[in-house]
């Protein structure tokens, strides 16, 4: 079949942007700023080990967060509060080793930055030098602005985190939606502006109404990363075990913002049972798994 098109349209790269980009160099804060200017949305996932991080890196996820949610997921605590800087450092080093392209961001855990800017710099420096992360994240808006400013001045990119900040679960008395009511909305807007002014390169908005998150996203020059913050954020993050259907939620009910894109808990349980049945029944190992 002959086709009489005057000229072959130049082959359009399938995904020109951050997600699925082909370059093997690490994603940088400049790439994220450029994506906001292009109006391009991007995904972020947590990771806590090298093998899982490699899967997400190969899938083209541009930013991986070694979240202090490791407390709930990897370490078996019922909150993020007990997580230590050494735990985040060890798992961050594994995630960096497992990845080639993703920017790896490490959470500063509870107690590692609240004393002030100098403590924050000591903790963040430890993560950069010992684990090799490209950026750190810390919770708090106006209350954390001095910490953010010193880290950024010292050359460490900072992702901020406002709205629901789980390290304050005891102060919040749970995980309530943030920014409801005029006073709370005004405070959240001040927090978002404060972290941008302090030099943060992005800000997580956690459990914020979709309307307020949209307003914050329009009002900031830096990208917003939503979790339970509606569809208008520049980026979206989920805890990977929630995203993949691995998390065992207390009472079996997941938070409203979670969408499961897989059934890993069932799949892994089925694999373990099939292995166990084969061992008990003598079907494994078979001849082809044996040496002579
Ligand atoms: N596995 C996991 N996923 C997370 O998203 C996560 C963690 N762990 N650990 C740290 C925090 C805790 N997070 C949570 C935990 C519970 C709700 C929750 O139950 N929210 C209610 C809304 C409550 C309200 O209506 O005020 C919901 O239904 O979403 C939200 C965030 C988010 N973070
Ligand atoms: C959910 C994200 C934003 C987080 O802080 C974590 O995983 O610890
Ligand atoms: Mg966290």
List keywords for this structure.
binds 5,10-methenyl-6,7,8-trihydrofolic acid, binds magnesium ion, eight-stranded parallel barrel, alpha/beta, 8 strands, 292 residues, globular, binds 3-methyl-2-oxobutanoic acid
Q: Care to give the gist of this entry?
A:
The protein has 292 residues and is of the alpha/beta class. It is 39% helix and 13% strand. It starts with 28 loop residues before the first helix and ends in an 11-residue tail after the last helix.
What does the model show?
The chain is an alpha/beta fold and 292 residues long. An 8-stranded parallel barrel has the order 1-2-3-4-5-6-7-8, surrounded by 7 helices. The protein has helices at residues 29-38, 50-58, 70-73, 85-97, 117-131, 145-153, 169-172, 182-198, 210-219, 240-243, 264-281; strands at 42-46, 63-66, 103-107, 135-139, 158-163, 202-206, 224-227, 235-238. The chain binds 5,10-methenyl-6,7,8-trihydrofolic acid, 3-methyl-2-oxobutanoic acid and magnesium ion. 3-methyl-2-oxobutanoic acid binds next to strand 6. The site of 5,10-methenyl-6,7,8-trihydrofolic acid (MHF) has 17 residues, from helix 3 and helix 10. InterPro entries: Pantoate_hydroxy_MeTrfase (IPR003700), Pyrv/PenolPyrv_kinase-like_dom (IPR015813), Pyrv_kinase-like_dom_sf (IPR040442).
SSE inventory with pairings:
Layout: H1 29-38, E1 42-46, H2 50-58, E2 63-66, H3 70-73, H4 85-97, E3 103-107, H5 117-131, E4 135-139, H6 145-153, E5 158-163, H7 169-172, H8 182-198, E6 202-206, H9 210-219, E7 224-227, E8 235-238, H10 240-243, H11 264-281
Parallel strand pairs: 1-2, 1-8, 2-3, 3-4, 4-5, 5-6, 6-7, 7-8
Helix pairs in contact: 2-4, 4-5, 5-6, 6-8, 8-9
The protein binds 5,10-methenyl-6,7,8-trihydrofolic acid, 3-methyl-2-oxobutanoic acid (KIV) and magnesium ion.
């Amino acid at each position: 079949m002959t086709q009489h098109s005057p000229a072959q349209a130049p082959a359009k790269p399938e995904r020109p942007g951050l997600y699925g980009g082909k370059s093997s160099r690490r994603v940088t804060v400049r790439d994220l700023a450029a994506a906001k200017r292009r109006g391009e949305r991007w995904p972020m996932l947590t990771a806590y080990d090298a093998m899982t991080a490699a899967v997400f890196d190969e899938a083209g996820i541009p930013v991986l967060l070694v979240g202090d949610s490791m407390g709930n997921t990897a370490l078996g605590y019922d909150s993020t509060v007990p997580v230590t800087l050494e735990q985040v450092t060890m798992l961050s080093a594994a995630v960096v080793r497992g990845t080639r392209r993703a920017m790896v961001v490490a959470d500063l855990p509870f107690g590692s930055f609240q004393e002030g800017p100098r403590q924050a710099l000591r903790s963040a420096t430890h993560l950069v030098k010992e684990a090799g992360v490209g950026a750190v994240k810390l919770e708090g808006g106006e209350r954390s602005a001095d910490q953010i400013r010193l880290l950024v001045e010292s050359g460490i990119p900072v992702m901020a985190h406002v709205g629901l900040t789980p390290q304050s679960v005891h102060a919040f008395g749970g995980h309530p939606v943030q920014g409801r009511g005029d006073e709370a909305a005004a405070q959240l807007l001040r927090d978002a502006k404060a972290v941008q002014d302090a030099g943060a390169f992005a800000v997580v908005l956690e459990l914020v109404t979709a309307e307020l998150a949209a307003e914050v996203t329009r009002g900031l020059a830096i990208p917003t990363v939503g979790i339970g913050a509606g569809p208008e954020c520049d980026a979206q993050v989920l805890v990977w075990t929630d995203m993949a259907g691995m998390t065992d939620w207390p009472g079996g009910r997941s938070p409203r913002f979670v969408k499961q894109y897989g059934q890993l808990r069932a799949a892994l349980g089925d694999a373990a049972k099939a292995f166990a049945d084969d061992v008990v029944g003598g079907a494994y190992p078979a001849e082809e798994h044996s040496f002579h």
